[in-house]
């Protein structure tokens, strides 16, 4: 966990938020792509390999942001 924390500490927050806004939400019309993939996941229709890859590709910035914010709030001794 300390290696992950060290990697995340080297990344500024702004590029992660920028990636979430662009890559995580693109294409914006008719709905954000990650939202479409999340609804497919919940409904059980996320089965095609391209859709699964697309879900991870568009979800990766959100995962990095969640890890950075989640690990950044803990104090290290």
Automatic annotation (TrEMBL):
Alphabetic keyword roster: Membrane, Transmembrane, Transmembrane helix
Keyword Membrane carried by entry: yes
Transmembrane parts of this sequence: 12-30, 50-71
Domain of life: Bacteria
Claim: Transmembrane is one of the keywords in the record: yes
Name of protein: RND transporter
